[in-house]
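User: Can you predict the 3D structure for this chain?
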Amino acid sequence: ITLNLEYHVPKSGAPAWFDLWAVPADAPNLDNACLFLDYMLRPEVFAGTDLLIVRELLGGLYFGTPRAFSDDRTEAYNTMRYSVAEVERVARVAFHSAIGRRRKVTSVDKANVLETSQLWRETVTRVAAEFPTVELDHLFVDACAMHLVTDPTRFDVILTENLFGDILSDEAAVLTGSLGMLPSATIGGEVDFYEP
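Assistant: Here is the predicted structure, written as structure tokens:
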């Protein structure tokens, strides 16, 4: 089993000891998982899949401010926010991880409609120049979701922001048959957390 990490960036309000900024989720080599998935996916589609999802954990829509309900609770809003520094930090983790793997990073965003994703894409592209031996491609999150179940072997390291990573890592779990089958880690602070 290959351990894949999702990475998370701390925001204000998190205790200092909980200053973790990355959470990896790995879809292990699935050649022997066919028994679990005969009813879900054709083995020839996912056989040989070995991917790592590097997910920024403590930023984006889940932690952005302002956020609120209207006084009468008939409306609500959240704010998706990222800084260049947050994106650079998690992007470097993805690129460093890719060096020890198949040397490919797929950055996942929604740059066709979200300014935060445009910043994400621009920043990841700049960071990629620091890693000339690693291939970079970009995918919109909806296309990535489709490819995870139709052509998962195309991926090596998937790099994405918090909300998209939350959804995509859960979707990748279907390749093993259950969320509980995938190891993950939250790293980046003084204390790292690992889930077998």
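Strands lie at 5-7, 22-27, 51-56, 68-69, 76-77, 104-109, 135-140, 157-160, 184-186, 193-195. The longest helix spans residues 84-99.
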